[in-house]
Specification:
The complex is a heterodimer of chains A (about 325) and B (about 280). With about 325 residues, chain A is mainly β. Chain A has three helices and 28 strands. Chain A is globular. The longest helix of chain B is centred in the N-terminal third of the chain and has 86 residues. In chain B, helix 2 packs antiparallel against helix 3 and helix 4 crosses helix 5. The radius of gyration of chain B is 75 Å and the shape is rod-shaped. Classes of the chains: A mainly beta (about 325), B mainly alpha (about 280). At the A-B interface, strand 20 of A face helix 3 of B. Chain B: It holds the Pfam family THOC7.
């Protein structure tokens, strides 16, 4: 169901103006990008068309848009064959093969699981035991087995809703960060909280004017990046101590380790490149004013791009990390 | 068939003709002219001089034709050699391209390695920063040693003080037991004594009656107490506390420590020196 923007009806313009992209995920083959927005829609873009030599306006529009959930799609995750999307308390799995064939007009998702929680903010995949960690509004992390869709265990401990999740593969642990300002490390085998770090209590990181919530968490097995209300900081997990604090003014929403750098996005209108020592090497401007999600296509070598989405209907694509190449539009 | 051949060869012929003619206009014509003049010369009934000049002219034309043929041959050789040259250059460039590709992939691997090394270095730096914040191990060890020494010294002092305290206690014990013995001795001697306790007041509360029973003296009473006459006074009779709180001690509850400086007897006053001498005897 293609949408033509040329017939710019005021309702459509209004719709596009208030769109926010909350989540992104690349297909396992690396040629497609799925993006979820606040209207509950998921749009599929073809990267090979957009990056090809004969790219034009039309190749920057989605090849498929469908409504996946009633509420906003806060989290998207790709496994080897399925796209998992999280809406208000329900997780749907869509087959990538069928999405790519675009025969999705009236097809329900291949699997839909329901939790009695208001919203699902984050999902993380644990490839070791093929399980999915889901965190949301009920202050708990639920572990779901991907084989049969049943929920294995619940990790309880947070006192407020969970913003972000990350999986530490080497040690088979799940990290969760929440609104209560605590980063908790859970052992997946025993479902116990191994560590609890309250980031806002450390003077070097704390920014009381912004609050104590942790909205961004990522781990590299030895190191952890966390930020949000407190400044973005790099932690050494063995010694549980903050080693560097990054002087970024806004609240960071997503960060990732890439080669020897740290890429982070958040409230400012830019992607920040930082070094592990604590210095900000570069800030690359992009279209959305406040960025919610950052994704790097590691599934494909020829379409290795960085995409960012935020409070705009444009998704910026960076072919070279140093500058914005073009934008995909919803 | 012949018609077809004719059509094909016509094109070929036209093409060849154009090519040939493009070289130098007139070569073909020259050959034709030569041929015609040769046939004319062969068949001409002209004079020998004219025949000779025509013969010469024909030689000249022949020479021209040969010259142009030579030129064309040389051009052909040159073209061949040029082609060879270009072939060589082409293969050379191909090799260069492949080697450059390899170098590029090598460099990319190098860059990946270097990035990893850089990342490791940065991690070390970050950890080093944290470690630097903690105090040096040698310093801490030295401080620990100093504290240990101090502890040792203080415990030595405590031991000394304890020993001194014990010694003093023993000494006082000796003194008081001596006094107790003296009291017993005096009790056992057949003397009437007034025990004068000096500590502000004298209150004869208790005394050991005959047989060792406690006997509560009344004020003003006189009695014989193991041949010791104790005059009732108002005040405290302070029994020396030989074993302070110990079992079997004769000491009763004492309010103030005894400080006996002398004994008032009927015959006189015995001071401490005399008492001591008595004891020694």
């Amino acid at each position: 169901m293609a949408r033509c923007v040329e017939t710019a009806s005021p309702i459509l313009m209004h719709h596009l103006l208030h769109m926010s992209v909350f989540s992104q995920s690349f297909s396992p083959c690396g040629k497609f990008l799925a993006a979820g927005n606040n209207y509950g829609e998921i749009a599929l873009f073809s990267l090979s068309a957009a990056l090809g030599p004969d790219a034009n306006e039309l190749s920057q529009k989605p090849i498929l848009t469908f409504t996946a959930h009633e509420g906003p799609v806060f989290s998207l995750l790709s496994t080897d064959s399925h796209l998992l999307s999280a809406g208000n308390g329900e997780i749907s799995a869509w087959s990538w093969a069928e999405l790519i064939k675009k025969c999705l007009c009236a097809l329900p998702p291949s699997l839909r699981s329901s939790l009695e929680i208001p919203e699902i903010n984050a999902m993380a995949l644990n490839p070791a035991d093929n399980s999915l960690a889901v965190g949301g509004g009920d202050n708990n992390v639920h572990i779901m087995d991907l084989e049969n869709g049943a929920f294995k265990s619940v990790l309880q401990g947070h006192t407020d809703y969970i913003h972000c999740l990350s999986v530490r593969e080497r040690a088979s642990e799940v990290l969760s960060g929440g609104e209560d300002g605590a980063v908790r490390i859970w052992d997946t085998r025993t479902s116990q909280c191994v560590h609890c770090v309250e980031v806002y209590k450390y003077e070097t990181c704390a920014r009381p004017q912004h609050g104590k919530w942790i909205s961004c968490l990522t781990t590299d097995s030895d190191w952890m990046l966390c930020g949000g209300g407190p400044s973005l900081s790099l932690w050494h997990l063995r010694s549980m101590s903050p080693t560097s604090v990054f002087p970024l003014s806004g609240c960071q929403r997503q960060a990732t380790f890439y080669q020897d750098m740290i890429l982070t996005v958040g409230e400012g209108q830019c992607v920040s490149h930082c070094l592990m020592g604590g210095e900000v090497k570069a800030q690359i401007p992009c279209t959305p004013h406040s960025i919610n999600t950052l994704a790097i296509n590691t599934n494909s070598t020829e379409h290795r791009v960085l995409t960012v989405g935020g409070s705009s209907d444009h998704i910026d694509v960076f072919t070279n990390l140093s500058y914005k190449a073009f934008s995909l539009r919803f | 068939m012949r018609v077809d051949m004719g059509a094909v060869t016509d094109d070929e012929v036209i093409r060849k003709r154009l090519l040939i003619d493009g070289d130098g206009a007139g070569d073909d014509r020259r050959i034709n002219v030569l041929l015609k003049s040769f046939t004319k010369w062969c068949n001409s009934p002209a004079t020998p001089e004219e025949g000779f000049t025509q013969h010469q002219r024909m030689h000249g034309t022949l020479a021209q034709c040969e010259f142009s043929m030579l030129k064309t041959l040389m051009v052909y050789d040159m073209n061949i050699r040029e082609m060879e040259n270009y072939e060589k250059i082409y293969s050379n460039i191909e090799e260069n391209i492949t080697s450059a590709h390899e170098k590029i992939s090598e460099c990319k691997k190098e860059i990946q390695r270097a990035k990893r090394i850089r990342k490791n270095r940065q991690e070390y730096d970050a950890l080093a920063k944290v470690i630097q914040q903690h105090p040096d191990r040698h310093e801490t060890l030295k401080q620990l040693e100093a504290l240990d020494k101090e502890l040792q010294q203080l415990s030595d002092i405590k031991e000394n003080v304890d020993a001194k305290l014990e010694l003093r206690k023993k000494q006082f014990h000796v003194l008081l037991s001596t006094i107790q013995e003296l009291q017993q001795t005096l009790d056992s001697r057949d003397e009437q004594l007034h025990l004068v306790g000096v500590c502000g007041h004298l209150d004869v509360r208790q005394s050991l009656g005959p047989g060792g029973r406690t006997h509560q003296p009344q004020e003003g009473e006189h009695y014989r107490h193991n041949e010791v006459l104790v005059r009732g006074f108002k005040g405290h009779l302070v029994q020396p506390d030989t074993h302070r709180g110990g079992p079997g001690g004769r000491g009763q509850a004492v309010s103030t420590p005894p400080y006996v400086i002398g004994i008032q007897t009927q015959s006189g006053y015995l001071d401490m020196d005399y008492l001591y001498r008595l004891k020694v005897q």
